[in-house]
Amino acid sequence: MLIVGTVVLTVEDIARAGAFWRGALGYVNRREPSDDWVVLDPPDKADQFAPGASIALSVTGYPQHYPPRIHFDLYAEDQAAEVKRLLGLGAREVDWDKYPDDADWIVLEDTEGNRFCVVDKSEQGTRPGN
Question: Which SUPFAM superfamilies match (predicted)?
Fold first, then answer.
């Protein structure tokens, strides 16, 4: 059986992206970053094969594609507070006109243009695929 070990995001500024995702999720560097690679783990992850997905940031020089083909869904107890906090860390709101009237998510992008949704946990079941 497979498990999700690491999700790799391409970035241009590894220090800025690392600071954003460490602040957003409370993750820590697995090792000291190189100039073009860092893996971020949940703080209690014992080793790379332990449960809990990691995030790797990779400087590749490839341009971002919009809309991206993959994104994170981050679940929030207090969606408004989390969106405000993430915006304070450098996230940007995505101008997206496809929200349904009953949307329980808000689309943001990190400092490098990688998109993610902040999903309101109190509105479970309204998101496509739930």
Answer: Glyoxalase/Bleomycin resistance protein/Dihydroxybiphenyl dioxygenase
